[in-house]
Every structure is written in C-alpha cells, then in structure tokens.
Amino acid sequence: MLFRCARHAGYRWKGTTMDFQLSDRQRELMDAAREVYRRKLEPLVSDDSVEGVHALRWTMAEQGLLGLNMPEAYGGVGLPLLDTLLIIQTLQSCAPILGGLAHRTSTGAVGAIAEYGTEDQRQRFVAPLCRGEIGISIGITEPEAGSAATAMKTRARVEGDKVILNGSKQFVSFVNYNQYTVVYCRFGNTGRARDIGAVIVPHDAPGFSHSNGTLNMADELLFELYFDDCEVPRENVLLDGEAFGKLISVYNAERLGSVSRMLGSAEAAYDYALAYSQERRQFNREICDFQGIQWMLADMRVKLDAAKLLTYRAAANASATGLPVPAETSIAKVFTAQAAKEICDDAIQILGANGYTKEYPLAHRYAEVRGGSIYGGTLQIHKNMIAAAILDRRISQWKKD
Ligand SMILES: Cc1cc2nc3c(=O)[nH]c(=O)nc-3n(C[C@H](O)[C@H](O)[C@H](O)COP(=O)(O)OP(=O)(O)OC[C@H]3O[C@@H](n4cnc5c(N)ncnc54)[C@H](O)[C@@H]3O)c2cc1C
C-alpha cells in the first residue's frame, strides 16, 4: 500500500553518491597495507617507548602510510577520505598503534592546518608530519568544558610578534610522543563561540608544561596541559577567532578517522572469535556448531557490515576537500561506537574465560573501542546533533537564566 501511494505521489528515490562496492583499487590498497604490516611493521609495534614510536613513524612514512589524505605537495599521499579511512581501518585491525598513527597524521589535528593554515604553516607542520618527523596532538577539552566545549576558558592574547596563552586542557592524547598541540582557545572577550580560534603550540614553548598523564582503560596516557603566560611565535596562530564552526567542520573528518579505528578493532575481534569458535571443542564438537554461538556470530557480522556502510557513506559523500556532512558523521559514529562495543563484548563471550584475560587480545580491543563513545563528542551529544539535523533547527543545550 505504502509503495503504491509513493508511486502515485511521484516519489522517486534520490539515491546518494555512494557506491556500495569497494573498487578493486580500494581492495588493493587495503591488501597492500596488510602486506606492509607483515613485512615491515609487525616487529616494531610492541615497542611503545618514545624511541619505539618514532621508529614506527619513520618506517610508516617510508612506506607511504602517513598523511594519507594530505596533499602530495606537502609529502602526503593525496588519497580521498574514503580510501584514507579504509587504510586506517586495516592498519587498526593489524595493531592499534598503527591505526592511531595513520589516523593522527591524516584525519587528526593536522587537518585544520592543511585546510586553514598559511603556506608557511603547511610547510613547517604538514610536510614534516608526513615525513614522520613530528606529531601533533589536539587540545580542546578543559576541566569545565567537556561536552560544552564552547565554555572553554584558555585565552590567547597577541602581543607584537608573539601570542601569549593562559589556561589549561585535559584528557589530551599522545602528548608524550608528539612535539606540538593544536590548542583551541579564546581570542576575544564576548564569552561566545565566536571568540574561539586555535594556536599551534610547541611542547618546548616557554610557559608550557604538562602532567605525567593518567592511564585510561586501554592503557594509554591522557594528559593535562598548562599554559602559564605561554609564549608562542605569532606565526603559529592558526585561526584568530570566528573559527569554531570551521574547526569543527574539519574535526568531523577526525571523528570519521576514530570511527574507522573502532571498525578496525571490531573487525579484528570478530575475526578472532570466528576462528576460535571453529577450533575450540566442547561436548566433542566445535563450539561454532552451537546455535547460541552461531547467532552471536550472525549478530556481530550484521553490526559490522552496517557500521561499515554508514561510515563509508559519510566518507563517500564528503566534499571535494574531504569535509564530511555533519549528520552523516554523527550517524556513523553513534552506530559504530555502539556496535563495536557489542561486537567486542560478544567476541569475549565466545572465548569464555580466555577472552576475559589479558593473554588474549579481546579485553584490550574492548577497552579501545569503549573510549569511542566518549571522545570526539559523546554519543549523547551526537544524538543531540542528529535530532537537530532531523528537525532542521538549532537546539541549544544551555540553561536559560
Ligand atoms: C580516550 C579518550 C581520548 C581523548 N582525547 C582527547 C584529546 O586528544 N583532546 C581533547 O581535547 N580531548 C580528548 N578527550 C576528551 C573528550 O573529548 C571528552 O571526554 C568529551 O568531550 C566529553 O567530555 P567530559 O568527559 O568532560 O564529559 P561531560 O561533558 O562531563 O559529560 C558527562 C556525561 O553527561 C552527558 N552530557 C553532557 N552534556 C549533555 C547534553 N547536552 N545532552 C545529553 N547528555 C549530555 C555526556 O554524554 C556524558 O555521558 C579524550 C577522551 C577520551 C575518553
């Protein structure tokens, strides 16, 4: 009935620009990334010392696995967003540190420099990042400004050829391995989002310091950053206000990079549990013979495929410069973050007590994907944004006085 009404009303499916098949070239790129892992990277991934991560960066740069979507003019690979995400997902499934490095040097903080930076900034930051010489963190969150990011208080004041920062950030990732942080901060005094801009702060700048870090569930350190009359050359100002919208539009590509990492981890957990279920025997048969296990495998596969399709849609529909549609990004993020937790949880269940120990990789995979419901905007914040897109209006979360 519904279909007949739709036909009479002249309803026509408009479709999207997404092609539901990955091309041969995209599959080759994923195979090539897996091959580089086997040949060059596998022996390096267990060394998480600062020197070990630097060695990994150099090797990845040499193999063309950093700056995947960065312009070739600055040493990047120049891939479209979807191809970039496919490689991040593949590397993440091989080893989380690889997905993290590919993500941070492609869709990470560097994206804002590539999009809005001056030619000098691109030469000084994008090019060495693609060569594996430097790493760049992103500092947005503050003690009083988590989900309410625009409540940030860190200030920047331009004085002659310098910019002076005061304030603090928290929960900043990878600071121990990186040399710079793109710090979101206020340039004006209106108290509004329009004051917000960003400065590229070197970690050896006078007045900059950071905590020793707090370990998260996935055994990664999250850092507090302190700016105490921190002096940075003025040419490191990336955007001096009126920039929150611009920064967030690039940040949507970063969000899809994290979503691809969750996909990679969920896929690795699924593959591991599937293989285990075909080997482990109880009641004199493989446990994959039990319908209880088969239904878990089926649920995991359905969620994995659906999460991939939503993520690939968001990437395929990105603008020519790789900026995704915000609502499609949020939809991919909400579904994948939830699906990845459930897939890793089922994978642990399939392994029984082995899955729950740290001898097997699944507890760590679960811990990694768990953070995805919190960083880059919590799932609740993304659902707020999806609702605003559906209703086509701005829905302020701020309490009115
Ligand atoms: C692994 C990891 C890595 C991170 N890396 C970085 C980084 O590199 N740089 C950086 O700047 N930050 C980073 N963060 C911080 C992250 O961005 C923040 O944790 C996130 O924005 C949420 O802020 P919060 O933790 O203060 O939670 P809060 O904002 O205090 O939220 C607490 C709870 O309230 C809910 N809530 C809040 N407001 C609303 C609302 N309007 N509607 C519905 N529910 C709401 C939230 O969904 C959440 O459940 C990282 C976090 C994690 C977990």
TrEMBL record:
Residues 138-230 form the Acyl-CoA oxidase/dehydrogenase middle domain. Residues 251-391 form the Acyl-CoA dehydrogenase/oxidase C-terminal domain. GO terms for molecular function: acyl-CoA dehydrogenase activity; flavin adenine dinucleotide binding. Its EC number is 3.13.1.4. Residues 23-133 form the Acyl-CoA dehydrogenase/oxidase N-terminal domain. One of its GO terms (biological process) is butyrate catabolic process. Its cofactor is FAD. PANTHER family: ACYL-COA DEHYDROGENASE, ISOVALERYL-COA DEHYDROGENASE, MITOCHONDRIAL-RELATED. This is 3-sulfinopropanoyl-CoA desulfinase. It comes from Ferruginivarius sediminum.
